[in-house]
Structures are given as C-alpha cells and as structure tokens.
Amino acid sequence: MIDWSDNLELNLSIDDIKEKQPDFLEIDWDNPQIFENEKRYMILEIKGNNDPLGMNNFLVFIDNKYQGRFAHK
C-alpha cells in the first residue's frame, strides 16, 4: 500500500486514483473527511496487512487533486 500510494503522480484526480486502485485495498470513497479544500479518504482494509501499530491510512486530495498518503494512530 505504501509503495503504491507513494508512487502515484501528484495532482491526479479522484477518478484517476480510483482507476489505479489495486484489488488489495478497500477505500471509503463515499465518506471523506473534509477540511476546507482538503479531503481525506480512509483506507478501510489492506489485504495481507500485518501492521502491529494499527495505523489509520488516508489518501489526501486538495482541490480534488491527489497530494499523497497520510497516516496516524
């Protein structure tokens, strides 16, 4: 997931990212967290994930353009 999200081109549209979404990810496209012009879409499931910290991962868009991945506990 980290390799995939970190290697996406910046400024891609949400639709472009949806087309590139791998089968091993489930992303909550219907319920973004919205902060002014920023939207964060939570990655709900990463198949095969063994993250001992249980981090929450998000894809971040500003003005509907991809800006990268954000994670927090």
Account of the protein in words:
The chain is α+β, with helices and mostly antiparallel strands and 73 residues long. It has one domain (2-72). 16% of the residues lie in helices and 41% in strands. The chain has two helices and five strands. It has helices spanning 2-6, 14-20; strands spanning 25-27, 33-35, 38-46, 56-62, 65-72. Strands 1, 2, 3, 4 and 5 form a five-stranded antiparallel β-sheet that branches. The protein is globular.
Offer a quick outline of the entry.
With 73 residues, the chain is of the alpha+beta class.
Q: What topology emerges from the helices and strands here?
A:
Layout: H1 2-6, H2 14-20, E1 25-27, E2 33-35, E3 38-46, E4 56-62, E5 65-72
Antiparallel strand pairs: 1-3, 2-3, 3-4, 4-5
Low-confidence stretches: none
Distance between the termini: 17 Å
Note the beta-strand portion. 35-45%
Number of helices: 2
**The biggest beta sheet, please?**
5 strands, antiparallel
Rounded to the nearest angstrom, the radius of gyration is: 12 Å
The mean pLDDT is: 93
DSSP strand tally: 5
Helicity range of the residues?
A: 10-25%
Helix/strand/pairing class, anyone?
A: alpha+beta
Number of domains: 1
Overall shape: it is globular
Task: Throw out a few tags for this protein.
2 helices, 73 residues, alpha+beta, 5-stranded antiparallel sheet, 16% helix
